[in-house]
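So, read this over?
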Amino acid sequence: MEEGERVAHFQIDYSPNAAERVDIAALCRAVRDAAIASGVFPPAGIRVRAVAVDHFAMANDDPAHAFVDLVVRLRGGRSLEARKRATAGIFAAMEAACATALAETSFMLSMEMRDFDPELSPKTSSIRDHLPEELK
């Protein structure tokens, strides 16, 4: 696998009220850990971030509704089977992290994994220079 094929960005958008129901920092760690456990993403290539979305409209505008949405952007090079396996594992980790919110409140959880064109997405990083060999 070439260096560029290792990049994986995990962007979590969530409604502000979701943070009252889910530990967002723990969710980020759960996504990271599931991504590593999948064997599809080396730790050095994983970037998980979460951003509260201040402006949104959903369903009937009931302020009790909440959401968490994960978009995974990948540099090409992974098979469909690998992406499916990773998606299943990551989404299961998200469901576990959000289980109480899903069971007890109006809550939507979603995920999408997609490839991006490496020719149109330049990257540079020194992170691998600062990691133990087994995490590169």
About this structure: Helices lie at 24-37, 80-97, 99-104.
